[in-house]
Known about the structure:
5 helices; binds ligand C2E
Amino acid sequence: GGAAEPPPKLVLDLERLSQVPSEKAGPLQRYAATIQSQRGDYNGKVLSIRQDDLRTLAVIYDQSPSVLTEQLIGWGVLDADARRAVQHEES
Ligand code: C2E
Ligand code: C2E
């Protein structure tokens, strides 16, 4: 892609998210459920979230956005492509 390419979207895999134990994923599960409810979007297998939401979640998890992103990729909740979104965000 070219230099003007937009950052990749942050797309949560809701099926994988529901399979992560809630001791770990509880805050993210509640956050995603709130966004679904605000959008009136209950049937999706995926949920696109805002770049700002990842920053908010990093505060909730007391981690940097890049460390949180790695954790979510490890859970299979975010695609590896999400790394570029965070690089974009932190550059
Ligand atoms: P809002 O932020 O005032 O956005 C109003 C409407 O603008 C949204 O209604 C949506 O139709 C549109 N909109 C705003 N930003 C975007 C965007 O980045 N992409 C797209 N495709 N549309 C956008 P909607 O979806 O019914 O959401 C209602 C309210 O729920 C929003 O009001 C906001 O307060 C909250 N919300 C929804 N999704 C999110 C989210 O992913 N993160 C956060 N932090 N809040 C959200
Ligand atoms: P998208 O709809 O393709 O929007 C891509 C980017 O365009 C957004 O990235 C945001 O920077 C900008 N954008 C789009 N619509 C609006 C708007 O109404 N107001 C403002 N201020 N900016 C807008 P962002 O914020 O990272 O969101 C990523 C994706 O998350 C969006 O892709 C959309 O799929 C979803 N999303 C975010 N907020 C909402 C929302 O309120 N409602 C819905 N339905 N989807 C949302």
